Amino acid sequence: MPLVQIVQGMLDSNAITASNIADGAVTGNKIAPGAVTSSAVNFNNLLVNGDLTVTGNLTASGTITYLDTSVTVTSALSVINVGTGPALVVRQKGNESVAEFYDQESGSALQIANNGQIGIGTNTPSTALHVIGNTTVSGSLTAITLSASRTLS
């Protein structure tokens, strides 16, 4: 089976078909619109050096690895878990915060510090749970030691 390898230039629309693509054979920088038309084309271990633009949906199954990557979302991020494990796992290495959430208008919304302390309304939590602003608790509030700087009612 002949292999198609592109070093420079552009392939015409008939140059690539499902029958002449092998693992890693296409290495060029331009493929003409319509050049890959068969849904049967299967790239194993496809490596793209440079920018990749996907118009439409991108579905990835298996392990996804990002190296020194910045991801920009223009709408919303939704995580739906239909499995039995956690829907989101975040592992952070180093001394920076694990997660920071901001509201564009009001600033810091939620911070999970490197030491596990959680700040709501502050990006510098000084206790396990540090809340700036009024707090409503529906249900019981249990405190082993209670200290108040104002009158409790």
Brief rundown of the structure:
Helices cover 0% and strands 11% of the residues. The chain contains no helices and 4 strands.
Which key features would you list for this structure?
four-stranded mixed beta sheet, 0% helix, disordered N terminus, little secondary structure, 153 residues, single chain, 4 strands
Structural overview:
It is built from no helices and four strands. It is largely without helices or strands and 153 residues long. A four-stranded mixed sheet has the order 1-2-3-4, with no helix packed on it. Strand 2 and strand 3 form a beta hairpin. The protein is elongated.
- Radius of gyration of CA atoms, rounded to a whole number: 26 Å
Helix content: under 10%
Mean pLDDT: 74
Percentage beta strand: 5-15%
- Element order: H for helix, E for strand: EEEE
Structural class: little secondary structure
What's the topology here?
Layout: E1 99-103, E2 107-112, E3 118-120, E4 129-131
Parallel strand pairs: 3-4
Antiparallel strand pairs: 1-2, 2-3
